[in-house]
Design a protein that fits this description.
Length: about 260
């Protein structure tokens, strides 16, 4: 089956990120990366159980936190957490992030994979106050160059800098003139380690898939190193096809 068919067979909430909670270490790394401080108003879009907001308040001393999620159970869980911790400078909203008011944000944490949501929110982010930092994970805001990268964490600052094309954007993220297999694997591993929990047992499988996606995208955009397909890429393509019945080779452009 094609990789899209495999992904479609998984629960939608997992693919969209709705049911994926970042570990505490990732929140701390993200907030350090964004230089979160006491002057900030942080918006966490898709705040889940609120643990990220609690870390922002308790360890980074932010002035105000706003958590938005469209799941009332998660909002209730977050509200209970803050009541237990006696935290008051937080606002929780059960709303659709695409229509919710985020105009006073100075920092936004946004981790969604639904392309329609990403495009709609990118347009909204571009109208926020100058200097607002938007943090994403793995994927940059479409059409814009990042201001800061510590992969898989990516930061864009309003006003956004327009990228000439996907190639320029990709090279800005990886910071290299071309992407080889070692680079693809290193960055895929960074992503897996950043969002994974210590108990996760499928890290290597996820790293293989992510490294293939990185390298194939680079190849199709003309920024892979060399003209030949590296042997490790051929090997992993074969492993996925033979042992998991997952096809990714068709993603390679043959033009």
């Amino acid at each position: 089956m094609k990789i899209e068919e495999y992904l479609a067979s998984l629960p939608r909430s997992i693919i969209s990120g709705e049911e994926v909670q970042l570990p505490n270490k990732a929140f701390k790394e993200l907030f350090q990366f964004a230089k979160l401080d006491k002057e900030d108003t942080l918006y966490h879009l898709g705040c889940g159980d609120g643990k990220g907001l609690a870390i922002a308040i308790e360890e980074f001393g932010v002035r105000k936190c706003v958590g938005i999620d469209n799941d009332q159970k998660k909002i209730s869980s977050a509200r209970k957490l803050f009541e237990e911790k006696k935290i008051t400078n937080v606002t929780l909203r059960c709303e659709d992030i695409t229509t919710s008011d985020i105009s006073d944000a100075t920092v936004v944490l946004f981790w969604f994979t639904d392309q329609q949501v990403v495009e709609k929110m990118t347009e909204r982010f571009s109208t926020l106050k100058e200097g607002c930092r938007v943090i994403t994970i793995w994927g940059p805001l479409p059409g814009f160059l990042p201001d800061k990268v510590d992969f898989p964490y990516i930061l864009n600052v309003v006003p956004f800098k327009k990228a000439k094309d996907l190639k320029e954007q990709l090279l800005a993220i990886f910071g290299k003139d071309c992407v080889d297999f070692v680079t693809a694997w290193e960055y895929a591993e960074r992503y897996t380690k950043a969002i994974g929990s210590p108990e996760a047992g499928n890290d290597r499988f996820l790293t293989i898939i992510q490294s293939l996606i990185i390298w194939i995208n680079a190849k199709n955009l003309g920024v892979a190193c060399g003209d030949e397909i590296p042997q490790p890429i051929k090997t992993y393509i074969s492993i996925l096809r033979t042992f998991f019945n997952i096809d990714v080779e068709y993603l390679l452009s043959h033009s």
